[in-house]
Amino acid sequence: MASKMGVFIHNGTILTMKSGKVIRQGAIAIEDESIVDVGKTRELKRKYGRGYEKIGAQGKVVMPGLINTHQHAAMSLLRGYADDLPLREWLENWIWPIEKNMSAHDIYVGALLTAVESIMSGTTTINTMYHYTPEENEAKALADAGVRGVVGHVCFSWRKKEDKKALQDLTKNWHGKNDGLIRVSVDPHSPYTVDPEYMKELHVLRHELNQKYGSEKSPIICHVHVAETFDEREKIQSAFGLKLKGGIMEYLDALGVLDEHIIAAHCVALTDNDINVMRKRGVKVAHNPISNLKLASGISPIPKMLKCGLTVSLGTD
What we know:
Layout lengths: L6 E9 L6 E10 L2 E7 H8 L4 E4 L4 E2 L3 E6 L15 H13 L4 H18 L1 E8 L7 H8 L2 E8 L4 H15 L7 E7 L7 H18 L7 E6 L5 H9 L7 H8 L6 E5 L5 H10 L2 E4 L1 H6 L7 H6 L4 E3 L3
Parallel strand pairs: 1-4, 1-5, 6-7, 7-8, 8-9, 9-10, 10-11, 11-12, 12-13
Antiparallel strand pairs: 1-2, 2-3
């Protein structure tokens, strides 16, 4: 902060996000990087008028920062690469091959670019899933930029040993760091790239890491792509020799890996039973409309999920 006393934002329209309350000609007082008061400018300026850096917000809306609940922060470097392709071809023929050539520094720089762009757009919290490397990584980039972040290491069946080592290092070194702004998640890539036994192993590992490093206020969550395309059920069956009787969420529920700390990204190809399972288990949804349009993945049944009482958020992917 520029002033030792703090900052006084005045004459703005304050969206409190509490019971729809809006304060016109409102003000916010900030001390030591914490909001200490919110109210009418004419009332607060008597208490916080002197010694504060003053920011006039006339004609502007002042609101809490936006939260991007599904992103791959380092992939800002791949923006515009391999457009207009379906998901499977995009991933297997273009994205995964080029990612093999990305260095730890590339990952850091890409995530730093995303953090800066996020700040400029009013986004102050990023939930990101990508490849973790100890030397330079997304967590360091978000911490250096000063944004709040949940940073996960993406896991695949073909690299279980490496994944578990990365998750241990990520959690030990970053969960709760930067004054609590950085948290960690365990991120199975998807039900068609993570076999059922490994999915269960990662669920157990998350609970073990939570017991050691997490807390009720700062839990280690799970972040996973689910039902992104309508052929995902067939991809799971083909990859692991399974015969699914129901939808994908029903499959994950049968594995015992769903709970209230799951953020499921996309959720396009859901059955009604899937949605009921999500409600029962408290699974949260990260809706990514732009990504779904870019890859022609389909339209997520948002109205149906909201009607069922699910928590639905927005991500950019």
